[in-house]
Design goal:
Blueprint: E1 4-9, H1 13-24, E2 29-35, H2 39-43, E3 51-53, H3 56-60, E4 67-70, H4 77-86, E5 90-94, H5 101-114, E6 118-121, H6 128-136, E7 143-151, H7 172-175, H8 179-195, E8 201-207, E9 218-224, E10 230-236, E11 246-252, E12 256-260, E13 270-274, E14 278-280, H9 288-301, H10 314-330
Parallel strand pairs: 1-2, 1-4, 2-3, 4-5, 5-6, 7-10
Antiparallel strand pairs: 7-11, 8-9, 9-10, 11-12, 12-13, 13-14
This protein binds nicotinamide-adenine-dinucleotide (NAD).
Keywords: Oxidoreductase
GO molecular function: nucleotide binding; oxidoreductase activity
Pfam family, one: GFO_IDH_MocA
């Protein structure tokens, strides 16, 4: 297979503003089809030559379709992944895998049964600062802790682009929860990606402190890896975007690495290594979505950039999803009422 034909199912914010530009920059990838239930969303996708359809069956029957990127709200992942798997295409599914554990298990099973490649779209694995940080971890000595802050401001009427938006992120039925299920999966994935071992114990405290909606607007999660690295995650929809709100620290006995403003969809931010004097660490500027789509495209084509196929096992992504949702379901919500407030 020389060129991989991609379809995008769900043409909203992340697909239009981040995935599509990433995909269009990849050698050997071609966008052949777009699917969304909303014709206006299809119209807003800046790509030529692709079939645009609100009909899922017609989308999946597009000639030359090899891989489908699923970017609909979380509860919609399962039916789309199952349909794509049944049609025999590889699937790159947005995070979180699903809105609950049963759906996540079902979509992983569907791909395994169909024998198609399934990837979870944890784009931050591919952020160039995180790729560099992974190389630096051995220089930190014995890693004792990873501390992550990944917060933003997301009120009930939030919109990504100023246009009226269906804010499904605060609808438990479609999102599966609030800030924690939306933001924590990135941090949990990063811990495992950076350290080479995943968090296996996890607990959570949830709050609905500021916004008047029926899901958590903040959470603190604490966990540990099998070798004993402690992990702390603060995720929130109640931190004004103007404040410092994205920080990733890996702490070791010989040094510490601090990534600022790297967690997100673009290649920006900074990376500093303290041993103990601070040294700025340069990194590439490849957008994380571009790197992600390049790797998945190569895996689908069977060529494997740098000798690797898709290096992430869906069973591992499913285990992390189960761990997170179990911790969230066992957490006690804060008793206090939302206070309201504006940034
Ligand atoms: N990796 C990241 O950094 C990142 C960032 C943002 C969003 N996401 C994930 O991407 C997914 C989409 O998020 P978004 O912010 O782009 O949402 P969005 O609301 O902006 O877009 C979702 C689109 O899906 C369409 N849609 C809804 N149900 C559908 C269905 N059953 N079939 C076809 N189309 C359907 C909607 O019309 C809309 O155009 C979510 O799972 C979210 O968690 C990931």
């Amino acid at each position: 297979m020389s060129t991989v034909g991609w379809g995008i199912a769900g043409c909203g914010w992340v697909a239009r503003d981040h995935a599509l530009p990433g995909l269009l920059a990849v050698d050997g990838a071609r966008v052949v089809a777009l699917h969304d239930l909303d014709p206006a969303a299809l119209d807003r996708m800046p790509v030529e030559g692709a079939r645009r359809t609100t009909d899922l069956a017609g989308f999946l029957a597009t000639p030359g379709l090899d891989a489908v990127y699923v970017a609909v709200p979380n509860a919609g992942h399962r039916p789309l992944v199952e349909a794509a798997a049944a049609a025999g295409t590889a699937v790159l599914c947005e995070k979180p895998l699903a809105a609950d554990v049963d759906d996540a298990q079902a979509l992983v099973d569907a791909c395994a049964r169909a024998g198609v490649l399934l990837g979870a779209a944890y784009d931050q694995r591919w952020h160039p600062a995180h790729v560099r940080l992974r190389e630096l971890v051995p220089e930190l000595g014995t890693v004792t802790a990873v501390r992550i802050v990944y917060c933003c401001w997301l009120p009930g009427d939030w919109t990504p682009d100023g246009r009226p938006h269906d804010n499904w992120r605060v609808d438990r039925a479609r999102a599966g929860g609030g800030a924690a299920i939306d933001l924590a999966p990135h941090g949990l994935d990063l811990v495992g990606t950076l350290l080479g071992e995943d968090v296996t114990t996890l607990s959570a405290l949830l709050q609905t402190r500021v916004h008047d909606y029926g899901v958590d607007d903040g959470a603190l999660l604490t966990g540990a890896t099998p070798s004993g690295v402690l992990v702390g995650l603060h995720v929130a929809f109640n931190t004004p975007d103007a404040l410092p709100r994205r920080r990733l620290e890996v702490v070791g006995t010989r040094g510490m690495a601090v990534a600022l403003d790297t967690m997100g969809q673009t290649a920006g931010g900074s990376l500093t290594l303290y041993r103990p004097d601070p040294v700025d660490v340069p990194f590439a500027d490849t957008p994380p979505f571009e790197a992600q789509f390049a790797a998945f495209t190569d895996a689908v084509a069977g060529r494997g950039r740098a000798g690797t196929a898709w290096p992430y096992d869906p069973a591992r992504d499913l285990a992390l999803h189960r761990l997170l949702l179990t911790a969230l379901s066992e957490s006690a919500p804060s008793e206090s009422a939302p206070s309201g407030g504006t940034p």
